[in-house]
Amino acid sequence: MARVFIISNRVAVPNPDRGVHAGGLEVALKATLRRHDCVWLGWSGEVKPEGETQTRTVEAGGVTYIVTDLTEEDYEEYYNGFANRVLWPILHYRLDLAEFTRRDLTGYLRVNEHFAAELDNVLEPDDLVWVHDYHLLPLAKALRQRGRHNRIGFFLHIPMPPPEILTAMPNHERLIPALLHYDLVGFQTDGDSQNFARYLASECGMPAHIPRRIGVDDRTMRVGAFPVGIETREFTRRARRAVRSEFVRSVRASVPGALMLGVDRLDYTKGITLRLDAFERFLMANPKWHGKVSFAQITPKSRSAIHEYAQMEREIDTAAGRINGTYGDVSWTPLRYVNRPYTRTALAGLYRLARVGIVTPLRDGMNLVAKEYVAAQDSTDPGVLILSRFVGAAAEFEDALIVNPYDPEAVGAAICRALEMPLEERVERHRKLYEALCDNDIRHWGDRFLTELTGYDMTGSLRPNSPREASGGISVPARIRRRSAGFSMTASHHHS
Ligand code: GDG
Question: What is the DSSP letter of 331?
Fold first, then answer.
C-alpha cells in the first residue's frame, strides 16, 4: 500500500519522558498519522560533531519515524542561519531583520540535499510525500533531480509576502521558483496564495490573473489555501475540566478583577512590545480600571541564539518593569510577564478564565492561540478576542475585535471595549467565532490536503487503486470552499 511521507524540520517522536508538551505539527497531523500508513522524516533535534551524525528509524504507535542528526555547521548555517535569519524574517515582512550570507544559503541547500538523499533511500514510486514549512522549500527539486516522480505536496505554515518583499531576498530566484517542482503548494490563506501567484507572474512570466491552467509541460502544479485549525471540541472539553483545577483556582483567587491573557512564543513577529505599549496607554487613559484588571503575558523563550531575540527580550523586560513600577500597587500587579511554558491543560484553563484574549502579532501565518482562546470559552459567558488583522486567523474570525497592532492607542481602546462589552454582544460574537472554528476543524485538514494532492478521496484510508475525481471526492467545508481561490498551472521544469 502507498505510504504518506511527512517531512518537516523537527519530528515529534512520541516520548513518555518528554512530558505533556505536544508540538503544534503533531496535533495538526494527528488524524493523518492515525488514518494512513505514515513515515515521518526530519531532524532528530540533536547536533553532533562531523562524522558522528546518524540516521535512526523508530517505530511508535503505528508510525515509522526516521530522524537524522545535524552537524554543528548544519545547525548554524541551515537552522539558525538561512531558515531563521533570512526566511523567517523576510516571509514575515521584516526585511530590516534579515541577515543573508552565501555560506548560510549553502548550508541550507546542503541540508535539503541530505534530507532528499535519506528520503531517496526509502521511497517507493507510489508513496506520497508531504513537505512542511520554510526549512524545506527546495526539497521537491532535490528529489526530482534524483529522478523521483512521486506526488509531492508542500505546505507553508508561515506567511507568503508579496513579490515586492520576496524579491529583496538574495537568491530568491533559486528558491521560490523551486516550488514549481511540487504537485501542490498549500498556504494558510487566499492572500498568501495570491501573493505567490503574483510572484510567479512577475518573476517567472506566468499570466498575471490567477490561471486555471497554463504552460505546456507534463505536470500540473496546483496552489490552494488550507487554513490550519485546532481540535475544537476536544479543546473545549479540556478547558472546561481545567478551569476547575487547583492551578486555575489559585490564579483566579490571586487576580483582583478581570484577567487579560496573551500567549506567544517569544518572537518579534508576535508584536509583544507594541502590545505592552497598548496596555500602558489603556492604563493611562482609564484610571477607573486601575486595580480591576491584570494582564498575564505568557511567553516561553525560543531561538535565544539569535541576537534579535535577545534584544527583544531586553526591551520587553524594560517595558514590563516600567508598567508595574508606574501603575502597580502593593495590592495590584497590572502586568504578569512570565517566560516559563505551561502545560496545554493549564493554558486551556487560563484561556477560559480570561475575560480578554489578546493576540496582536505584526504578522502570523495563522495563529493557533486565537483559535484555542475561542474554543476554551464558556459559551454562556464568553471572553472577548482582540485580534490583529495581520494574522491568517483574521480571515476566518471577522467577529473578533479586529485591530491594527501598529496603533497602540487603538489597541488600548479595544482593550477597554472588550472589558466593557455587554454579555449579549459577547455571546453573539463568540457564537459566530465558534461556528467558524467548527467549520474548519483540524481533523479534516490533512485529508483535504492529501485529497487535493492525489485526486483520490483521502478521507478514509488510502485507496490508490480506485481513483475518483477530486471534485467528487473532497469534502470541503462551505466556508472554506467559498474562500478558496485555488488555481492550477502546468509547470515547466526550466523555470528553476
Ligand atoms: C507556526 C506559525 C501557525 C504556546 N505557549 C505554550 C504553548 N504554546 C502553543 C500554543 C499554540 C502553539 O504553541 C503556538 O502556535 P501559533 O500558531 O500561535 O504560533 P507558531 O508557534 O509561531 O506556529 C503560525 C502555526 O505554525 C501552525 O500552522 O498558526 O502562524 O507561525 O498551540 O498553545 N503550549 C504549551 N505551553 C506553553 O507555554 N503547552
Answer: T
Catalytic residue among 104, 127, 277, 364: 364
Q: For residue 243, how far is its CA from the centre of ligand 1 (angstroms)?
A: 21
Q: Whose CA is nearest to atom 1 of ligand 1?
A: 157
Site of grid cell 505546456: 216
Neighbours of 318 (CB within 10 A): 12
Mutate to test the pocket of ligand 1, among 301, 369, 385 (most ligand atoms within 8 A of CB): 369
Using a 6 Å cutoff on CB, does residue 341 contact ligand 1?
yes
Task: Supply 175's cell numbers.
Answer: 528558491
Q: Is 495 a catalytic residue?
A: no
Test site for ligand 1: of 29, 367, 387, most ligand atoms within 8 A of the Cβ: 367
Q: Is 286 exposed, middle or buried (0-12, 13-18, 19+ CB in 10 A)?
A: middle
Q: Alpha helix locations (H) across 287-440?
A: 307-327, 344-353, 368-376, 408-420, 423-439
> Is 157 in the active site?
yes
| CA 20 – ligand 1 centroid, Å | 15
How far apart are alpha carbons 397 and 404 in whole angstroms?
A: 15
Q: How far is the CA of 24 from the centre of ligand 1 (A)?
A: 6
String of DSSP letters for 22-77: PPHHHHHHHHHHHHS-EEEEEEEEEEE-TT---EEEEEETTEEEEEEEEEHHHIII
DSSP 351-387: HHH-SEEEE--SSBSS-HHHHHHHHHS-TTS--EEEE
Mean pLDDT, the chain cut into blocks of 10 residues (496 residues total): 92 69 76 92 95 94 95 97 97 96 98 98 96 97 96 97 97 96 95 94 80 52 94 96 95 95 95 97 98 96 79 92 96 95 95 98 97 98 98 98 98 98 98 96 91 81 40 37 53 42
Residue pair 161/147 in contact by the 8 Å Cβ criterion: no
Sign of CA dihedral 190, 192, 198, 199: negative
228 C-beta closer than 6 A to ligand 1: yes
